[in-house]
Amino acid sequence: MFIFTEENIGDIKNAVYTNDGIPDKHAKKIEGIKDGLFKDFKYSKYKVKNPPKNNSMVVYNELQFLKDLPEDDSYVVKHDDVEKIFEEICKENNVEYPKELVDNLLKSAAGIILDLKYHYNRPRPFQLASHYNFKLGEKVMESMKTPSYPSGHSAQGILIGKVLQTKLPLNTDAFLEAGKRISYSRNLGRAHYPSDSKLGEDIGSAMFRYVRDKI
């Protein structure tokens, strides 16, 4: 059982993803919100849905949950590419993949997700786990190089899954199931806490409701 001490409690409470601000490439995507599909999407309510505190039992239990998950690098890497997952489902079901639509949804959602991520600046699970004196995830993918909360893959996976499930002639729940798999893969890869994934899925669903009659 981990014990909080005067020496470690401050480091844990104050841990963040970065102290270097927002990189220019991410700032440009945030600036691009005003030109995207979600320019009028009211997401300010998500700026008051704080993640669990670093030194809470909720977070400690989340880290333990991630630590106990099985290792499956191939599954994690496969689901890291959101577009490819949905493109493969279209090919398997002889449905034309709407690349332009998906690209536009991903690009338009990215700025909002990044704005929320840097607003909270939550450390990634592997960063916080080090303060709890254990390792969590040896592989840091390129898609993990942003703050943790919320999960962008969860938001975009659910958004794209629901849009395609609605727009394309498919009689299975393959797109919806893919969105959930993409979200889960981020836990399996130790990229996100379950609370990151939950908020991401909520945002993805809200984005779908906002955009479904506009595309």
Commentary on this structure:
By secondary structure, this protein is mostly helical. It has a single domain (23-35, 52-211), classed as Phosphatidic acid phosphatase type 2/haloperoxidase (Vanadium-containing Chloroperoxidase, domain 1, Up-down Bundle). It has ten helices and no strands. It has helices at 6-14, 24-31, 57-68, 73-80, 82-92, 99-120, 125-131, 152-167, 174-188, 194-211. The longest helix is centred in the middle third of the chain and has 22 residues, at 99-120. The model has no long low-confidence stretch (mean pLDDT 95).
Quick rundown:
The chain is built from ten helices and no strands.
List the helices and strands and how they pair.
Blueprint: H1 6-14, H2 24-31, H3 57-68, H4 73-80, H5 82-92, H6 99-120, H7 125-131, H8 152-167, H9 174-188, H10 194-211
Helix pairs in contact: 2-6, 4-9, 5-9, 6-8, 8-9, 8-10, 9-10
What proportion of the residues form beta strands (DSSP E)? under 5%
Cα separation of the termini? 51 Å
Structural class computed from helices and strand pairing: mainly alpha
Taken together, the total number of domains comes to 1
Number of helices: 10
Assigned CATH architecture: Up-down Bundle
From the spread of the alpha carbons, the general shape counts as: globular
CATH class descriptor: Mainly Alpha
Rg measurement, Å: 18 Å
CATH homologous superfamily, by name?
Phosphatidic acid phosphatase type 2/haloperoxidase
